[in-house]
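Protocol step 4 of 6: structure prediction from sequence.
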Amino acid sequence: MKITNFFKLLFGLIIFCFSASSFSDNSPQQSTDIACRYETKVIPNKKSNKPSINAWYFWRSPNMIQTQDANGDRGEIWLRTIKDSVQYRKLYISDKTAVEYMPADMPTNNIDFNWDKLSNMISQSELDSMKLVKKTHVMNRNAQVYRGKIGAQSIEVTWLMEEKLPASIIKKDKLETIELHLIEIAALSVAQQKPLTIEEISNYRHIDATDFGDMEHDPFVVKIMAENGHHHD
């Protein structure tokens, strides 16, 4: 699976298709500084198609959210500014390059700039739209299991109550099952795997995504455009 498609799949899974208005609730304060390792599985219903598995990291602090694939090659970072706007960059770590996107790029690039969506993956109001099935414990943490349906898709969420993050999400339809599972969780300060620092990213080459059209001969841009299915003749 291409890494760009992986992150689109990832956030398509965790955000689902709820409207932005569902994030207007005032949820209790979550345990903010946290580091997680997740695994995403895509299991086709046709046995002839092989499942795909991707591991990735999620880090959250009050004004930073960062993800990175388990290979440490690609990632994403969202920064909340003092003016409460959100800066978003795709990180091409092996290329030491960061590509910056603006909110206006959201419709064509499947990017979300809603801080509550990104920091919690699912809001309390989303959970309230599903049925609370039971209370349980996951990794010695209090959790709740919710089930619901969106169109032809059935969804089950195991929700960590204090951390305000999913321990698992399972989404099924006629074509496939998509599963998100928490593998490791720790306070950010003691996590073995750390996110990139702002200082490290500041030393990267920075490119505005809107400049790609004027950089058609740049080797990095050519590579990234090819990964996204765009070829330069």
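Step 5 (inspection) to follow. Confidence is low (pLDDT under 50) at residues 1-6, 14-29.
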